[in-house]
Amino acid sequence: MDIKIQPIKESKISQVDFNDLKFGSVFSDHMFVCDYVDGKWQNPSIVPYGPITLDPSAKIFHYGQSIFEGMKAYKDTEGNILLFRPLDNCKRLNISAKRMVIPEIPEDLFMKGLKELLKVDNAWIPTNEGSSLYIRPFMFATGEGFHASPADEYKLIICTAPSGAYFSGKVTVLIEEKYARSANGGVGFAKAGGNYAAQFYPTQLAIDKGYNQVVWTDDNTHEYIEEAGAMNVFIRINDTLITSPTSDRILDGITRKSILQLAEDNKIPFEVRKITVKEVVEAAKSGELKEMFGAGTAAVISPIAGFGYKETDYDLPEIENSYASIFKEKLLNIQYNRGEDIHNWSVKV
Ligand code: PLP
Ligand code: COI
């Protein structure tokens, strides 16, 4: 399918301070748009970034049929554009689509649209350390009507934002005792917009108490650590790295599985198993809890400086040669094409 390109009349890039980028708050000149109408994805085009018009009865507004992805493009010193495991994002978008009864997007169409967009907005990919181009593909129901059933029309948009770090400063988390992000049989494994909306209230309560994010526990007993609001969670007890298995309730993070592979490659002991809050609290008390960190595309690897649980705060002092720093360096080296990439995760555009 040919992609029509409608270039912007005047680029906004000169208004952007690339030395002071926040996360996801300025947007590149163009976006990729594709419509699902008459039972097929069609009219792929690259158009100037800007508002879209929808009918007030579009089902996205009423029933929340909406999913998204998060990925990044990097530039190496030779100016090559690189993506990290992009097909994994496309496959996960389609896993989310299936669960939310949104028609799946053909992988070749998604990849072609994404690559063309990056070529058109090449100049927007930051080159300064710590910055990259955050890519946000999303699909939502544009079909009309108040009937509570899946829409018959959808839109895929991919837009991008030159971005710096997701967190500014140290990350502290509150381990949740009451609210749940997801439940067995639910949509926690999907990147459905509603999962994030449902997190906002308990996360705001945590922010009001001085924490940055909530670490979710299982909805049934609240005894097991699951994941954080925008990242999977890793816990190091003595020398062993532990992370919860993915499930119906937990997003199968691409950073998470890359870290597990790197741990295996580098003979760092790790366990994928359920871990109780009790075990973490006891390890914190005995000094065996060496580190905790979150992992995700936006957050990269974010060391957790402390956590709160049942009105008590536990600090995690910084340590030398932390696993977080080792994995972060290895990942960034692959993402920026500076190091060996034995699994061919980095894809040149
Ligand atoms: N968990 C949640 C809830 C997320 O939103 C994210 C971010 O995408 C992750 C985990 C990490 O996933 P990934 O490493 O694929 O970005
Ligand atoms: C990502 O890491 O790409 C995410 O999707 C997190 C997002 C909620 C900011």
Describe what is shown at a glance:
By secondary structure, the chain is of the alpha+beta class. Helices cover 24% and strands 30% of the residues. The strands form two sheets. Strands 1, 2, 3, 4, 5, 6, 7, 8 and 18 form a nine-stranded mixed sheet that branches.
Question: How would you portray this structure in words?
Answer:
The longest helix has 16 residues. With 349 residues, the protein is of the alpha+beta class. Strands 1, 2, 3, 4, 5, 6, 7, 8 and 18 form a nine-stranded mixed sheet that branches. Strands 9, 10, 11, 12, 13, 14, 15, 16 and 17 form a nine-stranded mixed sheet that branches. The protein starts with a strand and ends with a strand. It has two domains: 160 residues, D-amino Acid Aminotransferase, Chain A, domain 1 (2-Layer Sandwich); 165 residues, D-amino Acid Aminotransferase, Chain A, domain 2, CATH 3.20.10.10. The protein is 24% helix and 30% strand. It is globular, with a radius of gyration of 21 Å. The site of pyridoxal-5'-phosphate (PLP) has 12 residues, from helix 5.
